[in-house]
Write a structure and sequence with these properties.
- This protein is an alpha+beta fold.
- It is 53% helix and 8% strand.
- It contains 15 helices and 9 strands.
- It has a 6-stranded mixed β-sheet with strand order 4-5-6-7-8-9, covered by helices on one side.
- Strand 5 and strand 6 form a beta hairpin.
- Helix 2 packs across helix 3, helix 7 crosses helix 9 and helix 13 runs antiparallel to helix 15.
- The termini are far apart.
């Protein structure tokens, strides 16, 4: 029991005031994607679920239970019996997938609308809790990459970049191989010129054979190469996609920010997906605010919201009434409020002054936050590119093996010898006929033995009498055994009625 309790995951809670209503907000312990916390905080702010204000932390299982119970209460069974099995299956799938929300989900973004995502089972949970999942990574109207990027998703864009890099890599490798072969051919020609004249005919024959092989290889490689038009299209689309991904590395564009302001309703809660991170988003008086859940701000109770009005990270922190938070020179305050006691199982933090916190938040915060987001995004993109490149290489190797197996001749079945009756083999209808035939053969063998005794032959085995006697005795014993077997068979046949 002690080991299970030690491995149990906890989330720190932070009290806040939301429109004169106390709310215990869930903080994020690790710097990583956690859509469960974004959904839970949206439900807490909306008043759909509640956590007692005296709690300092909450376990992951308890938080999952609260969200799961709300899903069941929010979605009662349909009255239409034809739609009820579909609803029950969706709810069962979402309840099963809830633990995956604690680690993050793979979301494939499309760039036409703020709620345009590829349909996946994990996204169904946002529909069941009635919290929309949105993003601001939209294509700006009139962008030069609009024709290429607009109809594709993020994964498809990454495939275009990988295909371009693979094409350039293959061309580079092919060029190096050709140069190496040309160099080898020059060396071989130099060596062949120094050989004797009597080897010229063989050398010419070898060159002809090698030329045929090289021609076959070139024809085969040309068949695998893309055409000139396709190559230009791959390089053009890959370069445009790569340039657009570099220009929108923050995954928030001006058009996307304007669409978020336009399409979200006043005082509406949503979950914002940006830089592979899920955050609770709220619209108030025409402005967008992101809930601050980083555990590093737990010592600053007034820093609760971050205003989302810039795409380059130049934003400001706000208090519970959505006013901009200004630093002040206050006395150092402890990390934990008087009513909360530090949990020894959770990590502790050194108390900081408000001045130190605000200096680090404003002087260094903008640049460090932008740099941190950029690093996280670059790392996530590199990991995704590496994974997709590895999968593409494995698929290419599998296709190559399949093509080689198809080109390899399939061995046919081994011819089996025809089995039929032996020529001149006697056929017997009953055992007595067979016994009579065997007796006749034994009598013939006996007559031959008497003839050999009356007319002795020279011993075999190079005149060795000992070996000849041993062979004759073995043969005589076999004849005697067969004669005994024949006599016994005759007696059994006579005894039968």
């Amino acid at each position: 029991m002690a080991s299970a309790a030690s491995t149990e995951r906890f989330f720190r809670l932070r009290p806040m005031d939301f429109f004169h209503r106390p709310v215990n907000m869930v903080m994020q312990n690790e710097n990583g994607p956690c859509p469960l916390l974004a959904i839970a905080n949206a439900l807490l702010l909306r008043g759909d679920i509640k956590i007692h204000m005296d709690y300092a932390h909450i376990t992951q299982e308890k938080l999952l239970a609260l969200v799961g119970e709300f899903i069941l209460e929010k979605n009662p069974p349909y009255r239409d019996e034809t739609m009820r099995p579909h609803q029950e299956r969706n709810i069962a799938d979402v309840i099963t997938l809830l633990p995956q929300l604690t680690e993050g989900i793979d979301v494939n973004v499309r760039f036409k609308g703020i709620d345009d995502f590829e349909v996946q089972p994990e996204i169904l949970v946002f529909d069941l809790v009635d919290v929309p999942l949105v993003h601001g990574w939209l294509l700006d109207p009139g962008d030069k990459a609009e024709d290429v990027v607009a109809p594709l998703s993020y994964n498809q864009l990454v495939e275009r970049v990988i295909r371009q890099s693979e094409l350039l890599h293959n061309e580079k490798m092919e060029k190096e191989r050709c140069e190496k072969e040309e160099k080898q051919e020059e060396e071989e020609e130099t060596q062949e010129e120094e050989e004797k004249n009597q080897m010229e005919e063989e050398k010419c024959q070898e060159e002809k054979e090698e030329g045929q092989i090289e021609e076959e290889k070139c024809q085969k490689e040309k068949g695998n190469r893309p055409s000139t038009e396709e190559r230009e299209r791959i390089l053009r689309e890959g370069s445009m996609v790569e340039d657009w991904l570099r220009r929108t590395a923050s995954q928030l564009t001006v058009h996307g920010l304007m669409e978020l302001h336009r399409l979200l309703d006043e005082q509406q809660l949503a979950v914002l997906f940006r830089n592979n991170h899920f955050s609770t988003l709220f619209k108030y008086k025409g402005d967008l605010f992101v809930l601050v859940t980083d555990l590093g701000y737990l010592a600053e109770p007034k820093v609760l919201w971050e205003k989302l009005n810039q795409i380059d990270g130049d934003s400001s922190f706000c208090t519970s009434d959505f006013s901009v938070y200004h630093p002040s020179l206050d006395t150092p305050r402890p990390l934990y409020p008087p009513r909360l006691q530090p949990d020894p199982s959770l990590p502790t933090f050194t108390p900081r002054t408000v001045k130190q916190a605000l200096c680090s938040a404003q002087e260094v915060g903008d640049e460090s936050l932008a740099l941190q987001l950029h690093r996280e995004e670059v790392a996530a993109q590199e990991a995704r590119l590496a994974r997709l490149a590895r999968e593409a290489r494995e698929a290419q190797e599998a296709r190559t093996k399949i093509e080689e197996q198809r080109e390899r001749p399939i061995p046919g079945p081994r011819p089996q010898p025809k089995r039929g009756p032996r020529p001149n083999a006697p056929h017997f209808n009953n055992p007595s006929d067979r016994y009579r035939a065997q007796g006749a053969q034994l009598a013939e063998l006996d007559r031959e033995r008497q003839a050999r005794r009356s007319h002795p032959q020279p011993p075999p085995n190079d005149g060795n009498p000992v070996d000849s006697q041993r062979v004759n005795q073995t043969f005589l014993d076999e004849q005697q055994r067969m004669l005994t077997h024949y006599n016994r068979a005759q007696q059994e046949q006579q005894q039968q009625p």
